[in-house]
Design goal:
Mean pLDDT: 96
Structural class: alpha/beta
Number of strands: 18
Strand content: 25-35%
Order of helices and strands: EHEEEHEHEHEEHEEHEHEEEEEEHE
């Protein structure tokens, strides 16, 4: 036996799970994803990764701008006669009448250990907060934001030097390994559903570009966590003031230390390593990207841009 599955997802995070379902005995009968959007320096119209994967397997693709109050979407979904819908980073909140169409409802692959970090940026929020672990929750969807009962939850450790991109890749793979088994359990009637404790919930809002501005008056641990948590997007940024000239620098990776205390925003360097002072110590910058240049290791940056103790970041 197999389930007729409608898949609803958009970015790279959602592709491993779609591939796992395609490779399984279940039947993916349709894919809903966001419309093509302009992307890159040339603003070329670019299809979402889930669309590319679905079309490579000749699966029908639907790209409504909005699903709410959209009768055409409702009718398209009904016509597919799904047993279940699997949702992963789709990018739109589903109204109740959509949730009610599939025989077994809709399940969501959420990249956190719910009820922690409900919302649009759960991976980044966990890394910025300095969590030692995160995970994937597959839940039965309700009309509320990530509030449905959990069906299965698995965790992974977060390495102190892992960025959000590293964690993203691990969780995308984990979700893919979980989803087929969860559908098997739902089909067999053995899936258990555990209500979330709303009192323990937290919210991870969608990030904005200005969220990447660093403040070195915070602790070294907090600054380092923010840097890796916002890598790759929106990216952590600071202003370098060198010989009175200001330039923008993205810091991609750093680690905290209490062995150096040059003062908030001030620089300490031996020409190979770079420390920037924070409230209670410093961060050691491991990888950075000057404005208009490529990302590089700190030593390569210092070879081309020697810094002194009179230079500083803000």
């Amino acid at each position: 036996m197999s389930l007729r599955v409608v898949y609803m997802g958009t970015p790279e995070f959602a592709t491993p799970a779609l591939q796992a379902l395609i490779d399984s005995h279940h039947q993916v009968v349709g894919v809903f994803t966001q419309p093509d959007r302009p992307s890159g320096r040339g603003k070329k119209l670019t299809p979402p990764p889930v669309k590319v994967l679905a079309e490579s397997h000749a699966i029908p693709v639907f790209q409504p701008e909005k699903v709410r109050k959209n009768d055409e979407v409702f009718e398209q979904l009904q016509a597919l006669e799904p047993d279940i819908a699997v949702v992963a980073a789709y990018g739109q909140i589903l109204p109740q009448r959509i949730l009610d169409v599939p025989k077994f409802g809709c399940v969501n692959i959420h990249a956190s250990l719910l009820p922690k970090y409900r919302g649009a940026s759960p991976i980044q929020a966990a890394v910025v907060a300095g969590e030692s672990e995160t995970g994937v929750t597959i839940m039965q969807m309700e009309a509320g934001l990530d509030t449905g009962p959990a069906i299965q939850m698995k965790s992974i450790p977060i390495d102190p030097l892992h960025t959000s991109q590293d964690v993203h890749d691990q969780l995308a793979a984990l979700g893919a390994t979980m989803i087929v088994g969860v559908l098997d359990d739902i089909e067999a009637g053995t899936a258990m559903r555990t209500p979330q404790d709303d009192a323990l919930s937290s919210y991870a809002p969608m990030l904005k570009k200005e969220d990447g501005i660093l403040n070195f008056a915070h602790s070294a641990v907090a600054v380092a966590n923010k840097i890796r948590g916002l890598n790759p997007w929106p990216g952590a940024q600071a202003t370098l003031v060198k010989d009175g000239t200001e330039s923008r620098v993205k810091i991609h990776l750093a680690r905290p230390t209490t062995e150096k205390k040059p003062g908030v925003g001030k620089v300490e360097t031996d020409g190979k390593s770079l420390f920037i002072g924070c409230l209670d110590g410093a961060i050691e910058v491991l990888e950075l990207q000057p404005s208009g240049s490529r990302a590089m290791k700190t030593r390569d940056f210092l070879n081309g841009t020697p810094l002194t103790s009179s230079d500083y970041f803000r």
